[in-house]
Amino acid sequence: MNLATRAVWSDGRFVVGEAALISTWHPAFTRGEGLFETFRTIDRHVPGLDLHLRRMRWAAGRMGYAMLPDLDFGTICLELLDAAGLSDGRFRLTLFPASASPRLVLTVEALDTDLLARRAQGVRLLSSPYRIGERDPSRSMKLVSRTFYSLCEREVQVRGADEPLLLGDHGEVRETSRANLFAWREGEGLITPTLVDAFLPGVTRARLLARVRASGIPLRERTVLRDELVDCEEVFLTNAIAQAYPVLAVDEMEFSPGPMLERCLQLLMTEEGRHRAP
Questions:
Q1: What is the 3-state secondary structure (H, E, C) of the chain?
Q2: 8 Å CB contact between 53 and 73
Q3: pLDDT of 122
Q4: For 76, left (φ over 0), alpha (ψ -120 to 50), or beta?
Q5: Are 48 and 204 in contact, with CB atoms under 8 Å apart?
Q6: pLDDT per position as a tens digit, 100-145
Q7: In this predicted structure, what is the pLDDT of residue 1?
Q8: Among 26, 135, 173, 263, fewest CB within 10 Å belongs to which?
Q9: Does the global pTM surpass 0.85?
Q10: Rounded Cα–Cα distance for residues 33 and 63 (Å)
Q11: CB 189, CB 217: distance < 8 Å
């Protein structure tokens, strides 16, 4: 990575170069503590920024952290883009406990366009043997410690998959290690796991749900079993960086990108067009 295409904002100041920010006594280093959000800009606008900040504020309250400062993060993102010499980029906002220094860090780097292009062509999922328990309180928060997700990814990638499909104890679809899942089923419509099940509620998922409901497309949030996917015509994923991308396979089940994914991508881009309108 060219260091000139990176920039850092830390506790109200811009940091030049690769200066060390985290002490070996920092709680992120000693206990893996911290919350984070990742997002991107599209034409210098952050889709769903308010939703990302709302989710972080909720998680900070649950973790007992001091609240996220009320700052103009949209403007800070633009200043970081300019500092890095980027027109658009990938951001990570990290919040640490109140006693930590630094406490709040925002970074930007160039988008991995090769990775985005590969995802746009479709990904293959394998069910992870590791399960997400329904009483796990950490599932609804983006924690700095991602050991569970990393183990799940490593286990399926050595078997040739791109991402793990994470399931509950009874085969309920939760999420992948990086995205939320949607499926199109003729006769029922668009389906996606309900928030009653334990998984991270993605910002792009929330944006798409709002646009789908407004469009009149049939939609159900409900418990979705892995074995039900065999009856679906399309399966696709959503996250804040790639927006929406197709699933080509889940275990032995094969799928093809179809018109519902295209329609959902159009809905997301229509939302962006409204935000950029003068």
A1: CCHHHEEEEECCEEECCCCCCCCCCCHHHHCCCCEEEEEECECCECCCHHHHHHHHHHHHHHHCCCCCCCCCHHHHHHHHHHHHCCCCCEEEEEECCCCCCCCEEEEEECCCHHHHHHHHHCEEEEEEEEECCCCCCCCCCCECCCHHHHHHHHHHHCCCCCEEEEECCCCEEEEECCCEEEEEECCCEEEECCCCCCCCCCHHHHHHHHHHHHHCCCEEECCCEHHHHHHCCEEEEEECCCEEEEEEEECCEECCCCHHHHHHHHHHHHHHHHHHCC
A2: yes
A3: 97
A4: alpha
A5: yes
A6: 999 999 999 999 999 999 999 999 999 999 998 878 888 889 999 9
A7: 45
A8: 135
A9: yes
A10: 10
A11: yes
Neighbouring CB atoms inside 10 A of 124's CB total: 17
Q: Which amino acid is at 252?
A: E
List phi, psi (to 5°) of 200. Answer: -80, 120
Tens digits of residue pLDDT in 9-38: 999 999 866 666 788 888 888 888 999 999
Distance in angstroms (rounded) separating the CA atoms of residues 152 and 157: 9
Residue 63 near residue 74, CB atoms below 8 Å:
no
- CA dist 179 and 243 (Å) reads 9
Low-confidence ranges of the chain (pLDDT < 70): 1-4, 16-20, 197, 272-278
pLDDT given for residue 48 in this prediction = 96
Nearest CA-CA partner of 221 in 232, 212, 230: 212
Q: Which of 15, 86, 14 is nearest to 44 (CA)?
A: 86
**pLDDT at residue 111, as a whole number:** 96
Residue recorded with tokens 């079993």: 225
Question: CA-to-CA distance for 210 and 213, rounded, in angstroms?
Answer: 5
